[in-house]
Design a protein that fits this description.
With 514 residues, the chain is an alpha/beta fold. The chain folds into four domains: 115 residues, Cobalt-precorrin-4 Transmethylase, domain 1 (3-Layer(aba) Sandwich), CATH 3.40.1010.10; 127 residues, 2-Layer Sandwich (Methyltransferase, Cobalt-precorrin-4 Transmethylase, Domain 2); 118 residues, 3-Layer(aba) Sandwich (Rossmann fold), CATH 3.40.50.10090; 128 residues, Rossmann fold, CATH 3.40.50.10090. Helices cover 35% and strands 19% of the residues. The strands form four sheets. A five-stranded parallel sheet has the order 3-2-4-1-5, with helices on both faces. A hairpin with a 7-residue loop joins β8 and β9. α14 runs parallel beside α15. The termini are far apart. Bound molecules: S-adenosyl-L-homocysteine. S-adenosyl-L-homocysteine (SAH) binds next to α5, β8 and β10.
Length: 514
């Protein structure tokens, strides 16, 4: 079928989206918007996989063909895949590292789409040069040091025939940024010096810029190649040449983040991990997701639906998890009603995160205990509930503190299972391998059941690292006790029983290290 015949049928749209240089926070709003509406995401090897969490679509990595050979896909194969997916009516996001039109072959993809008659849009991204410069504290232009900046490919060998004029580059009155130049750094520096650029010109090589693995090595044209080899820098790396590199010491900020470079295992269920993972990134850490349980709807909604009709008969409604809030309120909304169904019932939550979840539905918690645990909730609730009707929106599993304690004060407690937590039988294999190789600095344990589940799913090779290279942070004394019972050593314990408290405990441990 020809392109012109296709245009009349429902052809999908393709968005060529710049993913930015690595930090997931550097995706544009438009980029996130496109990801949210995509049916298929084709992403390349430089893209941070955390960005895929903005999308519910099928995602395929295009830099390698699946399978043992792991062959690198040719550009024409990628173009073909884009075109075929669009022809089949799919909305496709082609997610590319940095900016799609800077050394990214995005324009070739656009040309192929145009030729095939497929509607497309291009969303710019933050290119590696600006991302790396800003995150290392270098301003690529400067009133005193650099009136211009040039983005240069380092892919071409300057000692062989090249489209680049190194004499002109040496005279360029500003900053030179070389992409793809790490493996030719010696030749590039040599060619610039031979063309007359002073040997003392400052150079900074930045690898894995804007990520928790960012490393920057500074030197001069004369010694940078040696320094970069000695530092064993990894790809992707960028080479910044010019006087502006000198400002770095004054304008550094990123590497000073409190958890910079720490690799942190987050054993939260998939459905709940996003906020925690993004917060870890914000603190400078690299999150590794380790879901041990999954959250599922109750086996039947019958009982929940029945209770939703009589919510206003309760004096108190108690939520002990964010999931419980979303499950009950989500079901209420689906049933065609809204928060007026609560009548005058008062609301209690176990902690601030659960209260924040209620706020999303414009509901304010009347009671949040000072200490975020079931005992404290029961204690603070007790004076209010004698002879009253209390509804507890709970998980299929959990501790029995509330029923026992509230019965003691004569409350009538109705337990309503609004979601199930089910054990998974394995950790994601790539994450498990990272633990087995000792790559994690921390694992945060945020509940007794997560501690028990993790102990069940970790292999002996993984457990060997625990307590020393891979430290365990526990959210509360109850969690620490459960962890120790199943043989997990706890290195630090949070004083505030939230994930933020876990991060704080890690920060303190790092700051205290001699
Ligand atoms: N379209 C991309 C560039 C693709 S070319 C962009 O606009 O950024 C690939 C090169 O980009 C790498 O060889 C490296 O030089 C550079 N690069 C990409 N991401 C980088 C990162 N996080 N840190 C350092 N350099 C990076």
């Amino acid at each position: 079928m020809s392109a012109s015949q296709r245009t009349n049928s429902a052809v999908g749209r393709v968005y060529l989206v710049g993913a930015g240089p690595g930090d997931p926070g550097l995706l544009t709003l438009r980029g996130a918007d496109c990801l949210a509406r995509a049916d298929l995401v084709l992403y390349d090897g430089l893209v941070n996989p955390l960005l895929l969490r903005y999308s519910h679509a099928l995602a395929e990595q295009t830099c390698r063909v699946d399978g043992p050979e792991g062959r690198v896909l040719r550009q024409d194969e990628i173009n073909r895949r884009l075109i075929e997916a669009a022809w089949s009516g799919k909305t496709v996001v082609r997610l590319k590292g940095g900016d799609p039109f800077i050394f990214g072959r995005g324009s070739e993809e656009a040309a192929a789409l145009s030729e095939a008659g497929i509607p497309f849009e291009v969303v710019p991204g933050i290119t590696a040069a600006t991302g790396a410069a800003v995150y290392t504290g270098i301003s690529l232009t400067h009133r005193d040091h650099a009136s211009a900046v040039a983005f240069v490919t380092g892919h071409e060998d300057p000692t062989k025939s090249t489209s680049l004029d190194y004499n002109a580059l040496a005279k360029f009155p500003g900053t030179l940024v070389f992409y793809m130049g790490l493996h030719r750094l010696g030749a590039i520096a040599q060619s610039l010096m031979e063309a007359g650029k002073p040997k003392s010109t400052p150079v900074c090589v930045v690898s894995r810029a804007t990520t928790p693995r960012q490393r920057a090595v500074t030197g001069t044209l004369q010694d940078i190649a040696e320094l970069a080899i000695a530092a064993e820098l990894h790809a992707p790396s960028l080479v910044i040449v010019g006087d502006c590199v000198r400002q770095r010491e004054q304008a550094r900020w990123f590497e000073g983040r409190p958890l910079f470079g720490q690799v942190i295992g987050i054993p939260r269920p998939e459905e709940q991990a996003d906020d925690t993972a993004l917060r870890a990134v914000e603190l400078g850490a690299l999150p590794v997701l380790l879901p041990t349980i999954e959250i599922a709807p109750p086996e039947s909604w019958d009982e929940v639906d029945a209770k939703l009709l009589s919510l206003r008969e309760f004096d108190w409604i108690v939520f002990t998890s964010v999931n419980g809030v979303h499950a009950l309120l989500g079901r209420l909304w689906k049933s065609g009603r809204d928060m007026r169904a609560f009548g005058n019932a008062r609301l209690a939550t176990i902690g601030p995160s659960t209260a924040a979840a209620l706020e999303k539905y414009s509901l304010r918690a009347d009671l949040i205990p000072a200490e975020f645990r079931a005992e404290a909730l029961a204690r603070e609730l007790s004076p209010h509930v004698a002879g009253k009707k209390v509804l507890w929106a709970r998980a299929s599993r959990g501790r029995d503190v509330l029923p026992v304690e509230l019965a003691k004060v004569g409350a009538t407690l109705t337990q309503l299972v609004v979601y199930q937590n089910r054990d998974l039988d394995q950790l994601p294999s790539s994450s498990l391998q990272q633990i087995e190789r000792g790559e994690l600095d921390w694992i945060g344990l945020s509940s007794p059941s997560i501690a028990r589940n993790l102990a069940r799913l970790l292999t002996d090779d993984a457990k060997n690292w625990l307590g020393n290279k891979t430290k365990l942070a526990s959210i509360s004394p109850v969690t620490s006790a459960a962890a120790r019972e199943v043989g997990l050593p706890i290195n630090v314990e949070a004083t505030d029983y939230t994930w933020e408290g876990l991060f704080d405990a890690m920060k303190t441990a790092i700051a205290d290290k001699p």
